[in-house]
Amino acid sequence: MIKLRYGNTNTYYIQGNQCGLLVDTDYAGTLSDFYKAIKENGIRISDIGYVIATHYHPDHMGLVGQLMEQGVNLLLVDSQKEAVHFSDKIFAKDKLTFRAINESDATVISCEESRRHLSLMGISGEIIYTPSHSKDSISLILDDGSCFVGDLDPAEYLDAYENSTALKSDWDLIMSFNPQTVYFAHRPAKSI
Question: What global pTM score does this model have?
Answer without folding.
Answer: 0.96
